[in-house]
Amino acid sequence: MAPKAKKQVAQRQQQPQKRHYEFGGPLGAAAISFGLPILLFTFTFACNDVSGCPAPSLLRPKSLDLEALKIEVGWPEDGIWGLASWRATGWTLGYYLFSALLYRILPGTEVEGTVLANGGRLKYKFNGLASALFTVAICAAGTVAQGAEFPLWTFIADNYLQILTANIIIAYSLATFVYVRSFSVKPGNKDLRLLAEGGKTGNMMYDWYIGRELNPRVTLPFIGEIDIKEWMEVRPGLLGWALMDMAFVAKQYRQFGYVTDSILFVTVVQCFYVLDCYIVEPNILTTMDITTDGFGFMLSFGDLVWVPFLYSQQTRYLSTHPNQLGTLGLAGVASILAVAFSIFRLSNNQKNAFRTNPDDPSVAHLKYIQTKAGTRLLISGWWGVARHINYFGDWLQSWPYSLPTGLAGYTILAAGTKAEGAITMLDGREVVAGDSKGWGMIFTYFYILYFGVLLIHRDGRDDEKCSKKYGEDWEKYKKIVRWKIIPYIY
Fold this sequence. Notes:
It comes from Cercophora newfieldiana. This protein is an alpha+beta fold and about 500 residues long.
């Protein structure tokens, strides 16, 4: 792209654009930004290891006593100030620093991103797999030496609430930092900095939420340059999800003296999902998060808080209610997972192979539409079945995460109660389904509902983007590939 053309692109980038708001506009962005942290705090307190999941008083709202409820949910003795601690915040920041050091020190591969609007291409360093394996190796060595009492596992379990708060604060701070810094983006800058098309509406609340700058980067002493969006997408939060799961496995062992097949299954498959993300880490460069969305609170909160804390709800639940699946139960959920993962991985591999080299023998036989925009739209293979068949596989994978919790719900009784069907903890307390049975599904199955809504919304966003980009070619494509996500249903 000629220097003059680059400058014109950059100048257009600076201008606020009138556009159709997503997520309910500024009010919706505000509701999500301040509502989701409250939701996660609610989940933390309402489903707990003090009184039950949900807390018993929540099942009797007409006679609800606030002081009794505080005791049941484990509300901090020093009130709201107890939601955070300097110790938990310090160690959380230390975890981020450790991850950054591994990014700097460990070898990795360098990959070029997609072509930007100004004609440039950014370079990315990928060594997430090496970093994750190095971290897990340290945890494995510590667990072998100290068992379930390994300090990392006990720290996560004992300071879960405060670690959640620390990450929320980091997410807010990071979103604010990149928003303020985005105003330093100058036309024709040599660093290829751009504003995201959807993040320059001129409304502060909305742009802070959706992300104003497309690819914010910082250069840190010794660490070097870090692409904030890509790094946050695959580093602390994603690995943090796996570490949370492992910590809850250790917690179950400390509480009961054994580990159930259900929590092992969920932990193994979720860790496998994380590992798979690292194995194909460069594929992230073609996702909407990287190519289209700016980096704002939506992604900072999603990456650092929502993923590790919401996605680990099932293992958190099972650490206190040790449900056993048995051979048939394991076979059932494993079968669903195998089908789901196959759809997800094979379809994504096919897409990336076609985008990288459409003449590759594995994809050369596929049919496509040649668009006026110069790109090709697949209409056969996996992508002839549904426009986002990978979303279907991804959503199916959420079911084996939640199904091992069964008809979730439990109440924790005092030692010596000798309730029928109760599971006894090592400290004598008893865990029984009781009146809570089924109500705990609000927490353990919420992920399935949320993920389905998320993928439907993503499909809608992609449809809007492609309609603008391809015009009548997109309409032609939709007549050929009729189904959006689920074949013959949606």
